[in-house]
Amino acid sequence: MRLDAVEVHLVGMPLVRSFETSFGVQTERAVLLVRVLTDEGEGWGECVAGTDPVYSSEYVGAVAGVIRDYLAPTLLGLESITAAGVDGALRYVVGHRMAKAALEAAVLDAESRAAGVSFGAVFGATRTSVECGVSVGIAPSIDALLDEVCGYVDAGYRRIKLKIKPGWDLEPVAAVRALLGADALLQVDANTAYTLADVDHLRRLDDFGLVLIEQPFVEEDVAAHAVLARAISTPVCLDESIVSTAVAVDAIDRGATSIVNIKAGRVGGYLEAVRIHDACVERGVPVWCGGMLETGIGRAANVALAALPGFTLPGDTSASDRYYADDLTEPFVLRDGHLDVPTTPGFGLEVRTDLVRAWALREPETLVHRRH
Ligand code: OSB
Ligand code: MG
Asked: Do residues 291 and 256 share a domain?
């Protein structure tokens, strides 16, 4: 396949409700989309980077820059490309995994559409639908939190994840556990808000029968998570720390994570995400699919990934209406707590280009090969 052009779009998506984590409050998502034009057709990829560098060092401004200055020119300079070759071609650029993942996803979409195969088939999906959980932000009060959680339970979500931070942990977790009953799947995500000085405090979460605690400490400190994992009975699950298969294997070997959250954007693409899945399955470590407030474009790919056999826990693969009143694709709708895995070629849905245009935050940028 020959790459002829790379388009970078930036779209502003209003959220149906604000989303608060230990990093701050978000009311809109600025979504960077990549569209590749090839001699075999087009493909779309969504970048999970946020507006600000608070979840990771990447953010949409940096992604747009590195794609324009390095990643797109490199791929446009190749005689021919394959999705499997994108990672190697871009390896000389350190980091910028979310930017690379978006490009790889777009190339993979074009390639699999041309070949007539779905992402599910490419990844090795073994299920036709996936069980869904929902990530619940920090709320203004316990009552507001319980109201929101009730809505999700009524909608059919099979697992609740609560965002926590110092000052918003034991009390909301106790209240939601009391609401849901002992058997419901409940887990927490700290997004790096604690330190090793909080071990005794975090041990008090052991009373609530949580599925896991996600990323309590700073991403570089895998060793601190190993200390915590030995000190508490709640399973520790890494998110931010896991940036590659090598890091995942190392964290598992060191006892820092007994469950792994897989996000394709964080690890440099869906193909690396599948490799992490395989490595975890080999080691008997359960995985689940994380989310980054994706539109239907990224959500479709996540749902295909979550259909692999090692994804034994419900993921943050919620329905489109969890975040968006109008999605950039046909919406994902929860059916009996599940989302269906798309079966049509590529990521499997059509992009609503009218909305991409109508909600554009700036003019799309088109990058083409320039001969020197
Ligand atoms: O830590 O999983 C996280 C959203 C943005 C950045 C980080 C995280 C999240 C979520 C939302 O928890 C998951 C979703 O897309 O529903
Ligand atoms: Mg997380």
From this structure: yes
Q: What percent of the chain has pLDDT over 90?
A: 98
Give yes or no: residues 51 and 73 share one domain.
yes
Same domain, residue pair 100 and 182: no
Write down the pTM of the prediction: 0.97
Percent of the chain at pLDDT exceeding 70: 99
Q: Ligand 1: which atom is nearest the Cα of residue 191?
A: 1
Ligand number nearest CA of 290 is: 1
| Ligand 1, atom nearest to 294 Cα | 15
Q: Are residues 86 and 136 in the same domain?
A: no
pLDDT digits over 244-298, tens only? 999 999 999 999 999 999 999 999 999 999 999 999 999 999 999 999 999 999 9
CATH number assigned to the domain comprising residue 82: 3.30.390.10
Q: Are residues 93 and 28 in the same domain?
A: yes
* 165 has catalytic annotation: no
Q: Which residues line ligand 1 (CB under 6 A)?
A: 55, 135, 189, 191, 239, 290-293, 316, 318
> Do 74 and 39 fall into the same domain?
yes
Give catalytic status of residue 161 as yes or no: no
Is residue 242 within 8 A of residue 275, CB to CB? The reply is no
Considering the domain architecture, whether residues 86 and 131 belong to the same structural domain is answered as: no
For 76, the domain range is 3-116+350-368
Residue 139's closest CA among 100, 169, 111?
Answer: 169
Question: For residue 345, is it within any domain?
Answer: no
Ligand 1 centroid, distance to 22 Cα (angstroms): 11
The answer to whether residues 188 and 323 belong to one domain is yes
Q: Does residue 276 fall inside a structural domain?
A: yes
